[in-house]
Write the structure tokens for this entry.
Amino acid sequence: EADIYQTPRYLVIGTGKKITLECSQTMGHDKMYWYQQDPGMELHLIHYSYGVNSTEKGDLSSESTVSRIRTEHFPLTLESARPSHTSQYLCASSGRGYEQYFGPGTRLTVT
Amino acid sequence: GENVEQHPSTLSVQEGDSAVIKCTYSDSASNYFPWYKQELGKGPQLIIDIRSNVGEKKDQRIAVTLNKTAKHFSLHITETQPEDSAVYFCAAVITGGSYIPTFGRGTSLIVHP
């Protein structure tokens, strides 16, 4: 069982609210990732980080931002939530190898 | 960049049957190919992987085959059980590069008891 955690697991929020999705891992992994998973299952990389103070945008354009101040923590923030942000958000990490360890996900609904 | 195609998108089998999911990739530099299983309400989890210097790898009821020339790899599940029902993702990675996998679109496998 991978030691990577996401909170909250479910979130329903109104349009215009600022939200932060939390992701933490206790494996000491340098690399962390955020994916958006659409209802059709496909995984879209929206942000990634190779270590502290390193953040990059992924393939899918996203209005979210991330930070990496500590190795174990990689939060994702939406400054102003919109219905188009409704989705499943998955956090993952990887160490020296290529295997990605995924958290359980946050299901976000913006009304 | 790399492009990974995965088929079928949905696969329905009877318990005890075999299931095969196929993927193709475009970049010949890709040399690591993991398969992930995502159960309902959970994140994907690695179930098996194969490197480009190997043609086949088995782990109990699951196996993966790789054809580098044709740039395709497949997941085989034998004697399927209801607990095999999940979404399966293939991926391709260029080791020594960005470490970021290119995922296929996923296959929803349904095993009927």
Summary: Residues 85 and 110 of chain A are 7 Å apart (CA to CA). The mean pLDDT of chain A is 94. The radius of gyration of chain A is 13 Å. Chain A has no helices and eleven strands.
